Task: inverse folding
């Protein structure tokens, strides 16, 4: 059994999760605490990957990132960077595709921190940054873990977007879900079953972890 | 000395009303805001703390303007020298008792002050505990000590004892009063409790529907 597709999937999920942490925390913070009405537009954009078929997202990203068009041409000309059919392109697409899985749990995490804790920190002379780092984030660890785990797991399970942007290049863009499809196409049901079983058990364990963290956090809050 | 003169439109149980209060709090005074729920007492606190913007008026603390509608000044909460104690404690659950106080310690201040504060409120032995495992009375002592670590010019106490049983309430009343005197604090207390107001206050403002309807020493009010 070739484990390269697993390795590519894990690398892709790990990098995507890291990038989304850096983007998702400020974005979710802004969405959670901004009272302006126009934020609903951004909320809708963030949630889009939940409802549109991954091939639609993949198609538009493919068009946008193609070296002949807009963004793709810009990246090609000025940074010598091609995102179509490359691993970097998979990361770029995955960041869009998994955005709601990072932002939404963080947003509800930010909202779950009692306002008086934040006000207490301000009353002690602390600025927004110090309050975020020392008070808000440490008191929503359950949401941080949920967001991280869901993003990672969701990226592992990607198919449509990855296929559109990355194609199916073994050792480069062939992730585990595409390998399974390949094996089924080639009538190698045994290998497809092994790959699938590993993914199934992995996904089940991930979900158990999420629910365990949430259970523990609810218990900790009820003790306060 | 604190000059307070604030106007703010608020909504209460009987509909909208205007909060309009003017008073001067002397340095070292313990002033109590007394009145029914929804009268605007907490809003006054929040305006003093910079957590609620008045519609107009002036807040001046020891010569420094914290809010002035005329001069368009509204100092952010973190720049106001205040200590706040909330009814629901609001301790940081991720920090130990000592950690809560250390977080409040301004840069450059000596760490010994934290231990001194813990000693003052009788919590030295619990310094490494997380707030979750403390009783209500102990939590409120931590909150009080944390608020005082900054040596604030103004201490704001919002019904700090209302969640405690009578014995603990009486004990903490004495402690708050002793600390207020010892540290020469200027304190604005919100309370519904007649005995608490009578025992602790230098002066009482009775507020109803945003209006100051009576003012004086506790003996004159009750």
Result:
């Amino acid at each position: 059994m070739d484990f390269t597709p697993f390795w590519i999937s894990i690398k892709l999920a790990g990098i995507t999760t890291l990038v989304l942490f850096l983007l998702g925390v400020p974005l979710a913070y802004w969405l959670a605490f901004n009272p302006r009405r126009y934020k609903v537009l951004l909320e809708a954009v963030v949630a889009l990957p939940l409802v549109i078929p991954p091939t639609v997202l993949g198609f538009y990203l493919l068009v946008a990132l193609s070296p002949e068009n807009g963004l793709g041409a810009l990246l090609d000309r000025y940074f010598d960077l091609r995102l179509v059919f490359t691993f970097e392109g998979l990361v770029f697409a995955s960041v869009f595709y998994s955005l709601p899985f990072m932002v939404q749990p963080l947003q509800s995490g930010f909202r779950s921190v009692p306002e008086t804790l934040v006000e207490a920190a301000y009353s002690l002379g602390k600025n927004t940054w110090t309050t975020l780092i020392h008070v808000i984030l440490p008191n929503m660890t359950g949401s941080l873990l949920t967001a991280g785990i869901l993003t990672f797991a969701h990226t592992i399970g990607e198919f449509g977007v990855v296929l559109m942007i990355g194609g199916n290049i073994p050792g480069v863009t062939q992730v585990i879900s595409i390998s399974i499809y390949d094996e089924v196409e080639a009538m190698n049901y045994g290998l497809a079953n092994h790959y699938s079983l590993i993914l199934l058990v992995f996904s089940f364990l991930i979900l158990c972890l999420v629910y365990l963290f949430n259970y523990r956090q609810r218990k900790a809050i009820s003790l306060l | 000395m604190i000059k307070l003169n604030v106007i703010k439109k608020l909504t209460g149980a009987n509909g909208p009303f205007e909060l309009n209060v003017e008073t001067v709090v002397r340095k070292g005074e313990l002033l109590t805001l007394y009145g029914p729920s929804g009268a605007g007492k907490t809003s006054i606190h929040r305006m003093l703390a910079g957590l609620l913007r008045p519609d107009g008026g002036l807040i001046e603390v020891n010569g420094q303007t914290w809010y002035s509608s005329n001069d368009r000044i509204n100092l952010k909460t973190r720049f106001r020298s205040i200590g706040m104690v909330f009814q629901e404690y609001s301790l940081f659950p991720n920090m130990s008792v000592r950690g809560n106080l250390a977080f409040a310690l301004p840069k450059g201040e000596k760490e010994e002050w934290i231990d001194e504060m813990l000693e003052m409120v009788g919590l030295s032995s619990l310094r490494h505990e997380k707030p979750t495992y403390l009783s209500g009375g102990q939590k409120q002592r931590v909150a009080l000590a944390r608020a005082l670590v900054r040596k604030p010019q103004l201490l704001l106490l919002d019904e700090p004892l209302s969640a405690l049983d009578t014995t603990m309430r009486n004990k903490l009343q004495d402690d708050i009063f002793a600390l207020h005197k010892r540290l020469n604090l200027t304190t604005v207390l919100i309370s519904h409790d007649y005995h608490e107001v009578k025992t602790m206050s230098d002066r009482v403002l009775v507020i109803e529907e945003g209006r100051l309807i009576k003012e004086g020493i506790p003996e004159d009010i009750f």
